[in-house]
Amino acid sequence: MPEFYPSIGDAVGAAMLHNIRLAYGGKASGPDAPLQARHLPHPSADLDSVPGMIARLTETATPHEVAGIIEEVIGAVVGALPQLTELVAATADWTRARLTFENPHHNPTFETWTRLAAATRMLRDVQEELEASEDMIAACPAELSDPRYRDEVPALRTRELLTDVLGNDAVADTQPSAAQNPEAGRQRAARASSPHAAIQRTAPVAGTTSESPTSTPPPRPPRSR
Prior knowledge:
It contains eight helices and no strands. It is mainly alpha-helical. Helix 3 (63-73) runs antiparallel to helix 5 and helix 4 (80-96) runs antiparallel to helix 5 (108-138).
């Protein structure tokens, strides 16, 4: 499998094809048959990707911004949800081409198609719910409510992204500047102004002075002939 995919749809499709080959006892073709770690760009590298949209969905985002993100998700042409729905539907059609009903008591292929067809219907239902919620999101208040009201309903996001685990420092080279990403700039400024960071900056290193004498390199040993 290659180390980089241009879109999440390509990555999911390649992973599904690999799992299908494993399920049927096939082997991955190509010189890089063993699975390799794939490069996942930071969400800030592509704000229109699904990780990028998740990163933009902060509590301080305006209702107009959130409604725009949902519009991007359910867009009929390039939306992530329609693409995922078509991907699952294509997988169901792939299974449909392999259906047989010779044994009425044991038909795992038909059970697989049934599950994929149900998943396709559920994804289409989700798209309808999001389309109905788009205008409602835009009408939500922009101000944050009292935190005590949030305990009345559960938080729904349960799965961490890779950037959530690694943190900002692990992908700092792909992040935009502070002018383009003010939140990241504030976080870096907070870390730089913390007492712990000040101690690290001012603590002298043992055995060193303010002026380090220039040392001459040791003589190179004679070359053996």
